[in-house]
Amino acid sequence: MTAVPIEGDIVVRRVPFEFPDDLDPVRNPGHHEWSHMLNGASLTMPYLEPFLIATLREAAKDIEDPEAVKGFCAQEGQHYRTHRRYNEVIKANGYAGLVEVEEAMKASWDRIRTRRSLTYRLAYSAGFESMTLGVTNWLVTDRCRLFAGSDTRVASFTLWHMVEEVGHKRVAFDAYQAACGGYWQRALGVFTGSWHVFWWSRKGCVAMLKADGKWRNARSRLKLWGRTGSFFTAILPGMLRSAMPGHDPRHEQDRPWVREWIAGFAAADPSVAPMLDTSHPDIPVPFPHERAA
Asked: Which entry of 28, 59, 60, 202 is 20 to 30 Å from 276 by CA?
């Protein structure tokens, strides 16, 4: 087994996002279904991300420079704890039934962690992380259409998470290559990892739409299908590239907005949560340009 280096520093940003008790889970009143699609994804994070952390920590012994894994785990730890705080607010504001969905999620990831090989789990992790690059590019590129008029606190925390996915985009892939290698398992992991997370995100979304009495509404269902179609249209090209021989996430181009956000945060006060202006027609990075220079 040949160890490979994982280069570069990963910045752990402890961003103080706050979610008041009376926050509306329908983060954008004009896009009810889209709000719950994002909420469904948030619901998975306190179960998915500890799984990713445990998997990469197990593989760290086979990596020449495990510091990147430590950075990955620290970032993902910040993510899932923030999602957990947000999810508790969701449940407290009309969606207490999500507890049962969460229990099923936990059991599902526990089964994978205890019954599947490290190779499978690393392929799943690398595959899912590859898929998130497509999600990030979609959310950033179409941010005005997807987040205009939405709750700035929730939009800001969502895009912070996705920006950091770009920062550690290579780590799970390199960990798989170091500890396991092999093409076919990695390629399959792009689809098994991505589909598993999508499946549980959808479960949460559907549960919330049912609680709102919208699940049997034809117009609501069409809106959900339309946004789901946009999601797959946006991410499938990147997933297919990720499943090709010779793929390396380093070759995926970062969006300029992502780079501007990273530079802006580095020059800003880290004790202040970076809030997007979702009323601005361009939803710029949430830092004054002179401070990001």
From this structure: 202
